[in-house]
Amino acid sequence: MRTVIQILLFIVAIVLTYFIYKGVQDPIDFDKTKEARYDATIERLKEIRKAELAFKNVHGRFTGSWDTLINFVKYDSVKNVRKVGELTDSMIEEGLTEKKAVDLGLLIRDTIKESVLESEFGGSFNADNLKLIPVPDTTAEFMLGSNVITTGSGIKVPVFEAKAHNNIVLRGLERQYVINLNETSRLNGKYPGLKVGSLTETNNNAGNWE
């Protein structure tokens, strides 16, 4: 009988040790995976912002359409100024401005067209991935929108927003941890996930991680 009790106590000790270890390790594993997914999602949001800013430079507005934005990156072009040479101190002393130096052929300032894909992202970039939240085993898309806000002084400001909720970014992870994270964001008046830009305020196209 004594031997049986000792065996049972030994088993209980092992089980307790396991649950103590799990209670300590699970939050660590969650945070590690969360940070990795957040980093990948933030990089994608930065790419979306870059594409939207290029689109605005060409069209004077942002777009809330993935088809429009992706086609722009894949097939459209932007204007860039090719600069060869700079004003020297001696040119400035002679009273030359940059325009005069260009007219005299001393400097070159050409406006050239470059593809958005090459100019902003490099030729190997896959524009079709812009809309996809980089989470394993999912084809979930970022929510994308655009708007025009009228400021207090009557100025109309185009804005855009792209965002991904924690429920998608952290899909497949311990549900209670995700719920706790969302609740913390709610209590702090913050979006429970990652986003760039805003449809309700002019925030200079900032991301909520910045």
How would you describe this structure to a colleague?
Keywords: Membrane, Transmembrane, Transmembrane helix. The chain crosses the membrane at residues 7-24. By secondary structure, the protein is an alpha+beta fold. It has helices spanning 2-59, 66-75, 89-93, 98-103, 116-121, 166-169, 175-187; strands at 77-84, 108-115, 143-150, 156-165, 193-197. The chain is built from 7 helices and 5 strands, in the order ααβααβαββααβ. A 3-stranded antiparallel sheet has the order 3-4-5. The chain is 49% helix and 19% strand. The protein folds into 2 domains: 28-74 and 122-197; 76-120, no CATH class.
Question: In brief, what are we looking at here?
Answer:
This protein has 210 residues and is α+β, with helices and mostly antiparallel strands. It has helices spanning 2-59, 66-75, 89-93, 98-103, 116-121, 166-169, 175-187; strands spanning 77-84, 108-115, 143-150, 156-165, 193-197.
* Beta-strand residue percentage: 15-25%
Continuous helix count:
7
Helix residue percentage? 40-55%
Give the SSE string: HHEHHEHEEHHE
Ranges with pLDDT <50 over ≥5 residues? none
Radius of gyration: 27 Å
**How many β-strand stretches?**
5
Strand order of the largest sheet: 3-4-5
Q: Output mean pLDDT.
A: 85
General shape: elongated
How many structural domains?
A: 2
Q: Distance N terminus to C terminus?
A: 64 Å
Q: What structural class do the secondary elements suggest?
A: alpha+beta
- Main sheet overview: 3 strands, antiparallel
